[in-house]
Amino acid sequence: MELSLAENEVRVLGSLIEKDITTPEYYPLSLNALVNACNQKSNRDPVMQLVEDDVRDALTSLQERRMAGPAGGADSRVTKYEHRLQEVFNFTRPEIAVLCVLLLRGPQTPGELRGRTERMHHFEALDDVQSALQKLAQRDPPLVKVLPRQPGTKESRWVHLMAGDVAVPESNQPAATTADRTFGDGQRLTQLEEEVAALRREVGGIKDQLERFRKQFE
Prior knowledge:
Blueprint: H1 7-22, E1 29-30, H2 31-39, H3 52-64, E2 68-70, E3 80-83, H4 85-89, H5 93-105, H6 110-116, H7 126-137, E4 144-146, E5 158-160, H8 178-215
Antiparallel strand pairs: 1-3, 2-3, 4-5
Helix pairs in contact: 1-2, 1-3, 1-5, 5-7, 6-7
């Protein structure tokens, strides 16, 4: 299966998963309820402002991929929608909880995921989160991957791959070589020497002016 969901599709899918687990009494969701779930300000990064047409288009695309669609057998005049990831991927509860939070909040560390999945699944230890992430990463195709650790941080962040592969940020590119740093230091030293020389000339000029001014009163 090719995974290349658009940003709106990622948000719609994550919102359906979250509400299925955390508020089953209100699930499946009407279009209006789903729009509100996508746009809520808590537990979302980034916060979005989708309209009904945005969500409807995302649902159409997800239905074509068999990931979501209208709920069958609902006794209501209002069409309601559900996700169908369980049918496609057969997730365990730890796996779908971790994936849901990654869909809704972007790259996160295992520690952050453990805290933010609490309403969906209680992880006894950080190793349990790591285990769920590893299982998602070992699927074909992989559904998550670990990003290179940021300088100054203790934990690496994980990111979902439902929208395709993720490029490594520029901040994670290899550091400058010793030769690069030496060349840069030499440039800065030359610039400082030129600035010091200019200041000395300026101070010398001021001294000459003061000396001439003093002689006028002798």
